[in-house]
Structures are given as C-alpha cells and as structure tokens.
Amino acid sequence: MEGDCLSCMKYLMFLFNFFIFLGGACLLGLGIWVIVDPTGFREIVAANPLLFTGAYIMLAMGAMLFLLGFLGCCGAIRENKCLLLFFFMFILLIFLAELSAAILAFIFRENLTREFFTKELKKHYQRNNDTDVFSATWNSVMITFACCGVNGPEDFEAIPHLPYSSLEKATVTPEACCQRELQSREGMFVNKEACLSGNERFQNRQGCYTVILNSFETYVYLAGALAIGVLAIELFAMIFAMCLFRGIQ
Q: Where are the domains positioned within the chain?
C-alpha cells in the first residue's frame, strides 16, 4: 500500500512539474514577446521603469521555471533525493519572489493610472523633439496606435510649441496625432497640412490610454490568470516534492 502511494505521488509530482515546465515556457515566451514586440508595446514598456523591470523579471522567472520544471521531472522519475531537495528549495525561492512581485505590483498600481500618465505627458513631452527619449517614445506610441495624448488632443493645450514647423504653431495637436495611411513612422500622412491647421477630420482624436487598455485588456487578464495558476501549481509541487522526499528510502 505504501509503495502504491509512493508511486502515485511520484507520477503526480511528475505531472505538476510538467505543468511548471509549460508555465515557465509560457512566461518565457511572453517575456520575450514584450521585449522584442515591434507593434508598439515595447515603447510603452521602455517608457515606464516599473514595466521595464517587470518584463525582465517575468523573463527571468520563466527561464528558471522552465529549468526547474525539467529538473523536478527528472527528480521524480529517478527518485533522486538530492534533485528533489534542490528543486524544493529553488521553487520555494521563486514562489516567494513571485508573491513579492505581485504584492509590489498591487502597491504601485497607481503608477499606471490615467492621471499619472497625463501628468507625466504634460511635464516631459516636447512635441517633435525626437532627440528626447520620452517625446520620441510617446510619438511612436501615438503613431502605432492611431491615438493622441492620454485622453485626447486637449492634453497638449498646456504644452509649449517648439520651433520645428510654422504649421504646427497654428494648432495644439502634434504631428504624431495626424492620421496616416499606414500606422508607422514611414506611413504617408492623409493630409498633414489640414491636420496641423486644426482640421479634426484628419486628426486621431481618441486618447491612447483607452486605446491601449482595450488592446491589451485580454492579455492582462490572461497574464493574471496564468500567474495565479503558476503559483498554485508551484505550491502543490512543493508539497508533493517534500512528501516524495520523505517517502524515498
């Protein structure tokens, strides 16, 4: 009976570690996608140090879970106490790190509010000055997502004009808010002169906060569900690892 229980525990341990292996692969893939994605999310991440750090933490956690899931599978099948103990200690450290990251994300969630981004835009944005990293990043985001400002073009009313274009002086709307045939910096303007002279027909009027939130809402919920699932699997894997460790003679 004891041998059957140990055998069952071994295969359950293998199963949970296989899920950890898959979860690590998903986190690794998601972290790589966030960092190298060419469609605009990379610029948003780069503009916020908290998001930038979080992306690399997710990448590192995914790589470690990928490796530890593999080691856990080997330890369970071979019934190796050394591998099981090594697995338990590292999965515990990762579990605590992920839990800490989730708590920090909850504490600093106010840094991702509409008001925060609006304040930062009005404080640091320099219109067409692409030598400024903040301004160049915002211009890339607005072009990529066909949006304007955080809430809309009215965000730029308090931002002083820079002497880049005589046309731009006639409107508060920056060039990046003008409609393009293709949403990239290389895309041709639909009507740049009319846009900069204040014709709303040729301007992107919707704020970037709403557009980006709608674009990534599904991914945010998916990432949250995945994180909860990974934490639960890690907890069960640690329990099974310790039980299997104590059961091996």
A: 1-111, 114-206
